[in-house]
């Protein structure tokens, strides 16, 4: 029997990567992925009905790095940190693919292959691997250091080989996204050369970080076609802001919003902290009076858990919640 996910969609038994590939294959469509960094932000985006989620190491990775470690995005977070978070988010609704940042792959070729296999086992639909050095930084910060082309290609080749091994042994799959941060320091031609080579090796999607004009964005999509191209929408970054409709016209197939959850949470928590410190009290809104904390529990699947308990014969919630 078909079931429904937390966003109300009919359950699709296909693996996450297969569903993401179907989305990318749709003509004249754009896969819009809001950034999430924890279970609550993911639940909210699922409740709003988004078809795909994105979990990064920066922004949402300042999300993952900051929420798990209280640290900035300076290459501190490890594979285990990000894998635990990605696995949890991917498990919340198996009908919705999750794309996760895989940083630099966390090491040499053997480690990159292990990363890819681990992401597949976690149920992640897609990942991106970049060409910065391991002690890397956010793509919209200055001073990024890059590895040489052959080191980068070895990372992508290792990712492809790791995926092939999983396909042959478990049937597992993942969409590999090749990201380059070389545009700022090495120029457009070198950046496109790197991405074209990665597609040739076996990457599925190209990710040019930090284009600085609409013309450059459109040109990259045209030159990399028919490979899908990903746009990173970072407010205040070096890339011009465009709507989803504008991005689609430029030729993009995926658009990620890495900062949307983390920055909203950051501002709201900061405002609440200042309010409590300065007034020694909190303002209770009409929504809070009406809904209370149960609204948050509801988003996180409270009634689904209650119903499951009843079906299993449990009696813990017979008097209500």
TrEMBL record:
InterPro entries to which the protein is assigned, alphabetical: ICL/PEPM, Isocitrate_lyase_ph_CS, Pyrv/PenolPyrv_kinase-like_dom, Pyrv_kinase-like_dom_sf
Source taxon at top rank: Eukaryota
Catalytic activity: (2S,3R)-3-hydroxybutane-1,2,3-tricarboxylate = pyruvate + succinate
Listed Gene3D superfamilies: Phosphoenolpyruvate-binding domains (3.20.20.60)
PROSITE patterns, per database record: ISOCITRATE_LYASE
Pfam families to which the protein is assigned, alphabetical: PEP_mutase
GO molecular function: methylisocitrate lyase activity
Protein name per the record: Phosphoenolpyruvate/pyruvate domain-containing protein
């Amino acid at each position: 029997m078909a079931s429904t996910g937390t966003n109300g969609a009919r359950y699709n038994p296909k693996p996450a990567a297969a569903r993401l590939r179907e989305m990318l294959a749709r003509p004249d469509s754009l896969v819009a992925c809001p950034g999430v960094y924890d279970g609550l932000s993911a639940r909210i985006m699922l409740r709003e009905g988004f078809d795909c989620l994105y979990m990064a190491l920066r922004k949402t990775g300042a999300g993952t790095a900051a929420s798990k470690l209280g640290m900035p995005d300076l290459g501190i977070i490890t594979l285990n940190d990000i894998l635990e978070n990605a696995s949890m988010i991917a498990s919340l609704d198996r009908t919705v693919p999750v794309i996760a940042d895989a940083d630099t792959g966390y090491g040499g070729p053997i480690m990159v292959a292990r990363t890819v296999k681990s992401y597949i086992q976690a149920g992640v639909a897609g990942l991106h691997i970049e060409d910065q050095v391991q002690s890397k930084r956010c793509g919209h910060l200055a001073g990024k250091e890059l590895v040489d082309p052959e080191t980068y290609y070895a990372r992508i080749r290792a990712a492809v080989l790791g995926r092939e091994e999983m396909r042959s042994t478990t049937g597992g799959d993942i969409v590999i996204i090749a990201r380059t941060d070389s545009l700022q320091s090495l120029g457009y031609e070198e950046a496109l050369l790197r991405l074209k080579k990665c597609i040739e090796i076996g990457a599925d999607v190209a990710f040019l970080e930090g284009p600085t004009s609409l013309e450059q964005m459109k040109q990259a999509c045209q030159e990399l076609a028919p490979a899908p191209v990903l746009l990173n929408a970072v407010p205040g970054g070096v890339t011009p802001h465009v709507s989803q409709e504008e991005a689609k016209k430029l030729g993009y197939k995926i658009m990620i919003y890495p900062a949307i959850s983390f920055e909203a949470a950051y501002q709201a928590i900061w405002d609440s902290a200042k309010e409590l410190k300065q007034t020694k009290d909190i303002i209770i809104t009409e929504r809070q009076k009406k809904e209370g904390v149960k609204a948050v529990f509801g988003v996180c699947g409270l009634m689904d858990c209650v119903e499951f308990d009843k079906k299993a014969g449990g009696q813990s919630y017979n008097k209500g919640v």
